[in-house]
Amino acid sequence: MFISDVLASISLPYGGGGLAMRTATQSPADGVSRFAGTLIDLLDRVEYRRVSVDDEFDPVYHLRYQAYRREEFVPTNPQLITRDEFDEADNCYCFGVYIDESLVSSVRFHHVTPTDPTSPGRSVWPDVLDPVLADGHSYIDPSRFTTDHDASLAFPALPYLTLRIVAMACEHFDARYCISAVRPEHAPFYKRIFGSHQLGDERNFAELQFSMRLYAAEVPIIRNRVADRYPFFMSTAGERERLFSDWAAKIDPIAPTARLAHRLRLLDPENN
């Protein structure tokens, strides 16, 4: 399931004049909007935990199952988990997002390169994405974005906190693109927040009953604009290393560093 799917199952004001647009009132202390400041404060209660591919009963897989069963996207199974062949790929990274030590959402992504091309998006749009790889570029392909139902109501901005993982991956792996397979009605969110442009036509993914379009954001172009407007996406190199290094699954849960990264950017904008 792609990132667009979670937007269909939670009540978020993504339309014109919605939550993402109510960012005009600035906090004079640090130059960020009240919306951004609220999310940075909420990150103080957040931990990210990487899922080990060897733990097939990690709570993240059960969260997926619960979310997909609410929408009847998957059949019932006695294990009460949802995994697929893409979870086993060497270039797959999967994370749970915890608030106050409770699992509230999850997302996975694939770091796709010419030498490691496994990607859910590429399985649907190979004719579009293979030329990107042939040109020597890499991309981040996020998918399996799911949320706890009660948490999605309690924390309407939860997708931003979850997508922060994807933003960090783009920075850490120096990816040229971040792709998004989305329903047409959700495309304005990705255009507005990430400057995404349409890359592929409408197609259906195997298990889904609706069509999607492929969008892509060019990371080097949008990086600074996104950091300036949405500083909660920012992070330190240390946090990214702990999240995405080979030994990351063996260490303690990781606390976000957006507040610190934002302060460092204000002090030295040329080097952040």
TrEMBL record:
One Pfam match: FeeM
Domain N-acyl amino acid synthase FeeM catalytic core: 60-217
Segments forming a coiled coil: none
Protein known as: N-acyl amino acid synthase FeeM catalytic core domain-containing protein
Organism, as annotated: Devosia rhodophyticola
